[in-house]
Structures are given as structure tokens and as C-alpha cells.
Amino acid sequence: MQYKLLASDFDNTLVPFGEPCPRPAVVKAVKKMQAAGGKFVLSTGRGYCVINKQQLGGIRFDYAITNNGACVVDRDGAIIAEHPMTNEEMYALVDFCEDYNYPLQFNFRDGYYAYCEYESLRDFYAQLSGSGLTCKDGEDQDRHLIDMPHAAFACLPDEALEAFNRKYGHLNLRFMMVGAVREGSWHCYDIVREGIDKGVGLADLCETVGLTLADAVSAGDSANDVGMLKAAGLGCCMANGSDDAKEAADRIIGDVREDGLAALIEELWFNGPRAEPSGHELGSPWGQMEAAEEKQ
Q1: Exposure of 285 by Cβ count < 10 A (0-12 exposed, 13-18 middle, 19+ buried)?
Q2: Is the pTM of this model over 0.85?
Q3: Yes or no: is domain 5-82+196-270 CATH 3.40.120.10?
Q4: pLDDT tens across 231-261, in order?
Q5: Which one is the CATH code of 87-192: 3.30.1240.10, 3.40.50.150, 3.40.50.720, 1.20.120.160?
Q6: How far is it, in rounded angstroms, from Cα 274 to Cα 219?
């Protein structure tokens, strides 16, 4: 079948870690696909307001699944589907983080607003050179009087997550670990509503633009891509991906540092050779993996 759109994760799928933008072969392949009528969808945990378009290397996405599926926008940032947080969810996070001075921000349409420990978050982002991430001082805590955030971000020690769930577990907020803050037991978490993930965002997008999930290809490499890999008609995990992402995918494609996404586009849109992971013979288990044209 001819797929209609490709939804791609950013870090270590579209762009290798440590590199400033996609490699030339990937940029060329995405633009070629778009010229042929395919839609390119950027799928990210970031809000639209902090997507650094210079990091896309000249690619202009047609749509973006942002905030891990909580908000879908068109190329100009207009919202076409959203699942904002509720007042109760916000207040629970603020009350908890204020009690222990844990850094907390909310991802609003126009920016990231720090409601707790602004200076800590500001300094944290300043250390991430070239990321494009930044936050505003929201410690007056009234930004939500305009509209509600789509997601939150917090820096917590391991024991805090268990403590939060003892008090507010009924909210079923989804905490996704995205990295270590410093040596020890502190970690960063993206936080969204119950049931929200990139797969939900992809389903929202397909419904809005008149496509089915069977028309979509997804590519990712990590845990927050699992929902999207399962939802798409064809879910592809990079060879450099995590075990859970590989298990969720229909097939494994080439490593991000070997332009695996470009090879996939050439195969699916332009009848190129099958995009096999490098270093494996076709007779190996990798080579024998069959792509699922549709999911039941």
C-alpha cells in the first residue's frame, strides 16, 4: 500500500544525539517525500513554542505531534487537536512541588512557565547548549487563567514519585523519565494526562485530516515512542532504539547514524531497496522480519 504520512521522533531518530540537525541524506529524503505528496509529521515531547526549527536542517514539517501527544498543531502552530491538563491536575503538582521545592514547569501554548523553582530550571536549560529550551518565570502562578497547559515537566528524586502517587495517585498522571538531573537519584519527568501518548496524538491527527492509522508510518527509538509505534499502520524502530521500542515496532530499520530514516523513505515512497539494519544478512532474524502492511 502507499502510505500517506510519516511521523518521526526527533532525538536519535531524525537527528543523532550530539549533532545539530538531520544529516543531508535525511533532509533530502524528507523533502523528496513531501514533493511527492507525503506528509512529514514531527513527533516530540516538546511544546510547539520551543521547537527549534533551525535544528530541522531546512525540513518544514506539515504537522507536529507535541507534548508527547497532548497537542497536535499544523506547520504554523495552529492547534488542531489537544488534551490540556485540568485544574485539579495542575494544583496537585504545584502543591506537591512547592512543599519540597522541586522544580516544576507547565507547557503552555506560548511558552514554558516555571511555577516552582524558576531559577533552577533556568540554569538547567542554560547548560543545554543549542537545545532551544528555555522557560519563563511563572511563579506568580496565574498563567493558567488564560488557558490550560498541555503538559508539565518536573525534576524529582526517585522517592518523590512514590510519595506523589500515594497522595494523588487517583489522578493517574503519566510520568515519563527523560533524563538524569545530576548524579544521584534525581531525574527529569515529562508529565501528561492519563492515557496520553504519541499514539493518541497520531490518531487525533489522522482523524482530523481524513486519514486512517493504516495510512501512517511512524519511526522512533525510545519508550515515549511506543504508543506511536503500535498505533501506526507500520511502526519502525531505529536499530539504535531501546528494547521496549523495538518490541513495540513492526520492524527494525537502520541506525540513525547510518541514515536509517532516509532509507525507509526511499523504500516506502520510491520503491527503493528494503531498509535493512546494517551489519545483518537478509537470512538473519533481522532480515526475516516482515513489515506489517496493516494492523488489525
Answers
A1: exposed
A2: yes
A3: no
A4: 999 999 999 999 999 999 999 999 999 999 9
A5: 3.30.1240.10
A6: 15
